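Need residues for this backbone.
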């Protein structure tokens, strides 16, 4: 059964300039189709079962959603500087997005879409902040490789993702595969365990209210920056 994303947002009638010829989901779907042609059927079946089992836990329904008050937090960026959510919110809304790590090709596609959208986010008086469970050295490599112009924070041991209700245990097959292929425990630290966050995206208003939430158990599904820009436009009305 195919997962359906939860997308709850303040709707805006403002028109926005198209950011690129294709949306991020089109790029992600193209990458997924390319991958599907190369992998054995048993891996596809394992991935489907993992997604179905995760969906059955109700993680999407239990996670923070529109109308909730986002928890304040302080995390460090890849250069060791502390960033506090409430301080950033003093400048305007925050677009908060999680990515699994620089090892994830789908995350890198999503990050590129945020690079493209960042100027438009700034024009709307908002700040884009990305969170990842990866340790600072791995985060720094991703920032440099992709030229990320926005704040990227290490959510050490999933501390903030836990508070948002986004963290889940990898199934045994996936955990073994990720460790062998990506050395996940080295990227995230042993204390982080065989866990990952949903690659969720939120828009948070200056009073810490959640105005938009995108969550999906399928890591190949991500928020469209164009939709986030519509939400930010609506907040300015």
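Answer:
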């Amino acid at each position: 059964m195919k997962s359906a994303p939860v997308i709850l947002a303040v709707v805006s009638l403002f028109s926005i300039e198209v950011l690129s010829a294709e949306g991020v989901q089109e790029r992600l779907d193209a990458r997924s189709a390319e991958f599907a042609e190369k992998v054995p059927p048993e891996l596809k079946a394992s991935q489907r079962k993992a997604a179905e089992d995760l969906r059955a836990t109700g993680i999407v329904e239990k996670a923070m959603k529109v109308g909730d008050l986002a928890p304040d937090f302080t995390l460090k960026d890849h250069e060791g500087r502390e960033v506090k959510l409430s301080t950033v919110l003093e400048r305007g809304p925050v677009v908060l997005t999680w990515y699994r790590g620089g090892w994830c090709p789908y995350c890198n596609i999503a990050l590129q879409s945020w690079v493209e959208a960042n100027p438009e986010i700034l024009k709307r008086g908002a700040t884009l902040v990305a969170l990842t469970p990866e340790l600072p050295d791995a985060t720094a490599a991703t920032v440099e490789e992709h030229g990320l112009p926005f704040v990227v924070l290490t959510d050490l041991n999933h501390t903030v993702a836990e508070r948002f209700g986004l963290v889940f245990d990898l199934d045994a097959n996936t955990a073994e595969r990720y460790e062998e292929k990506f050395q996940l425990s080295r990227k995230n630290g042993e204390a982080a365990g065989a866990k990952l966050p949903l690659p969720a995206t939120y828009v948070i208003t200056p009073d810490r209210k959640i105005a938009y939430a995108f969550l999906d158990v399928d890591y190949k599904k991500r928020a469209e920056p164009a939709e986030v820009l519509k939400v930010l436009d609506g907040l300015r009305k």
